Every structure is written in C-alpha cells, then in structure tokens.
C-alpha cells in the first residue's frame, strides 16, 4: 500500500507492562511501514494494573484494563489506544470505535512446568497457577487432582514466581510469550481444538474516536479482514451470553475461503459440566455482520442450558 502524503503525529496510548509496550511497538512499526504516520507512545496506568493482588472478578473485571485508555482518547490526551481484545468489553463507549484488528497471533494457551512437560506428566497435587475462571474450569475438568494457585501480575512476574518455586506449573497465552520472545519457556502448547482459548485471545484492537479524520488511514494500514470477521463472531457469542468476568466462557472462530468455523463453550466454575456449540457457515456479501449474527445466535442457542453458570 502506498504511503499517505501527509506527515502525521499521533499519540498512541498503551499500558505500561512489557507485553503492552511490545504490542504497541508492533503497531507503531506497522504504521511506520505502511504510512507516513509517526507515533508518540503515551503510557496510561490502568486500574487493572494498579490492583494486582486480587482476582479481576472481585475488582470489576477485565474492562479495568481498558477504561482509563478509553477515557484518555475521549479527553484528547491520546489519539489511539492498543488493546488486547480479550480484555475489551463488548460494549464500546459512545464516540469510540475499533478501527483495526491486525493479524491475530496464535490464540492457544500453553503450559509452563517445572515438573513435567504436559498436563499428564504433572504429579497429583502439583500446584498450578492461574486466576482465569476459564482456565480454572478447564484445569479442573482435565486434572481435578491438581492444586490451583491464584496468579496475577504481568508475564515476567508470573514466570518469576514459577522459577522461585512458588508453584509447579502455570497456564499462559502463547501470544504473549511470542511477543516477548519467551516462547521457549512453554513446555506444551494446548491445542485450541480441545482446549478452547479465551474469546479474542491473541488479537489486538486499535481504538480511536469515531470522528477522527485519521481513522480510515489507520484502518487501511492495520486491519486484517479475516481477523476482524473471526472476532465479530466471537464477540457476538460473548454478547449474547452476557456473562461476567466470573463466568468461564471460551471460543474460537476462524475464516478460510469465506467459510466461518466456530466452536464455543460455557463451563460450570468447577469444570464438572459444560455446554458447547459449533458451526461452519459460508459467508455472503456482509461477512462481518453475518459472522456477528452467527456468533450471537450460537450463544443464544446454549444460553438456557448454561444459565446456571452465567453471572449476569
């Protein structure tokens, strides 16, 4: 794509963790490669970053990683923000929109372990760290004999706890490890076919004011159509279920040659029960809208069966 004619400086907002900075740098590099837009990085401290000793569900959910960034866009402190899409609520504040979703990184979860490469290798009673209610349910279903240890903090902090022996294993997202050049720390990749990731895991979202004249340029430079369609499906599924941060929900959509494939699942918090649904459909003239509707309908189809596990 040819570079734009104008020389523009945009203030790009990001959280301050190493992972957030790495993700912001990927966006900065892509904009520099495809446009003449220059960016100034602005670090925004979010509530989710400040309170890292309590489960997210107890302090307001994943939206706490996005709230201050969105307020900074609306107030004019920054022009665009880079989000991990899995942390972004389905409802976007009035006056803002997601203008681009770059090519998605591998959405799989991975196991990091000090006492065995795979889940099957872990000894009974091994301590495994996570604070994700989805991962707790999935671990409990697969290995109810393991001791689950609450785990928050950035990737470096979590891995340091593993290295100090505070736990025997943990589950993290492969995408974050790759973006930090730490993929070698994973001892096993959990296949999304039988261990569904969080909705929108591995994807980034670029948020701007909907009246910003630079939205089209940023969108054209950064947006990946297949990623955008897959996320529309996954977020439609999430929206129809309406679960809170306390609800274990997983799902993964892919698009290939205009065929959309999706599988989603809702769990009881202890992993003892679950409801899942899947489909493959051919997309027509409005792939984004059709994907969103298909995901929404899939959620509605299992909502009644999963109602006991949905905290609305």
Output the radius of gyration: 19 Å
Instruction: Give me the strand/helix succession.
Output: EHEHHHEEEEHEHEHEEHHEEEH
CATH topology of the largest domain: D-Maltodextrin-Binding Protein, domain 2
The average pLDDT score comes to: 91
Corresponding CATH architecture of the largest domain: 3-Layer(aba) Sandwich
Number of strands: 13
Shape: globular
Treating each run of at least 4 consecutive H or I residues as one helix, how many helices?
10
Total domain modules: 3
Largest sheet: 5 strands, mixed
Strand percentage lies at: 15-25%
Write the CATH homologous superfamily of the largest domain.
Periplasmic binding protein-like II
Question: Between the first and last Cα atoms, what is the distance in angstroms?
Answer: 44 Å
Uncertain spans, ≥5 residues at pLDDT below 50? none
Percent helix range: 25-40%
Structural class: alpha/beta
Note down, in words, how this protein is organized:
By secondary structure, the chain is an alpha/beta fold. It folds into 3 domains: 1-102 and 202-223, 3-Layer(aba) Sandwich (D-Maltodextrin-Binding Protein, domain 2); 109-190, D-Maltodextrin-Binding Protein, domain 2; 224-305, Porphobilinogen deaminase, C-terminal domain (Double Stranded RNA Binding Domain, 2-Layer Sandwich), CATH 3.30.160. It has 10 helices and 13 strands. It has a 5-stranded mixed sheet, sandwiched between helices.
